[in-house]
Amino acid sequence: MRACIALLFFLSLGLFAGCDWSPPRDNPNDPGSSNYDAPPVIEELRIETHCRMLMVDYCSLEIIAGVRDPEGISTSDSAWVYLQGNCLGEMGYDAIQDHFILSLDENSERLPDRLGSYLGKDFVVRFKDDRGHLIADSARIAIIIRDYPQPVSPAKENRPDTVTTRRPCFQWLPYISDLDFLFSVNCYLDPFNYLLWDSCGISNDCTIVCMGPDDSLANSVDSQVMYSWTVSVEDSAGNTATSRPYQFVVAAP
Q1: Cis peptide preceding 154, ω within 30 of 0
Q2: Separation between Cα atoms, residue 216 and residue 250, nearest integer Å
Q3: Nearest-5° angle of CA 239, CA 232, CA 93?
Q4: For the segment 25-63, what is each residue's pLDDT rounded down to a tens digit?
Q5: Which residues form the domain of 229?
Q6: Domain identity same for 239 and 156
Q7: In DSSP terms, which residues pair with 116 in a beta bridge?
Q8: pTM tops 0.90, yes or no
Q9: Is residue 2 part of a domain?
């Protein structure tokens, strides 16, 4: 009897020794596989608010999500934004910036109230890749800047101002804030709002910037050609507040 048991034991040992019990390592869902495709990750999620003064002031927000997908972002991947269970829309993918983005205006169908009404509320981003992985993350509005910088020159109430140079200087009042911010100035060809010139990253203690010798308003001196300009403040998180646009014309000196 003992001999039979010993024989069975050695036969079993030989059988087991002859088998490979290692699992296959070519499964893309197996972390040990050589071609393992890890699930996507939302590495960055932020909300930028942008306010500007026209006839009245209004604000918009941008929800920006940076997603890392080991397979790369494909046309089958999608990201959506939700607020309190309601879908606000699908995010578009910016291949240059490599992030998903959705822009929304306050007092609109999707955001019917002023942005301040949404402080403390979670904007949820849900991402799904082409393999069916689902991930989600949320962000909140951190700040809304509704204190607008005030242009000084060229600026006149209810009518265009006049300058006598194709390289004008743009001046504004000092801006006092607890925020860490910088200024930017944009000059446009009206009425189409075509950007002609800009200057960004201006120190927060500066109140004037001029076009340099390599810059010039492209059109000839013509009182019928209308320009406009704005000055903006931008904090370190990308939130902005932009002055109302002031119009001007270029006349011969």
Answers
A1: yes
A2: 11
A3: 45
A4: 555 555 555 555 678 999 999 999 999 998 889 999 999
A5: 151-250
A6: yes
A7: none
A8: no
A9: no
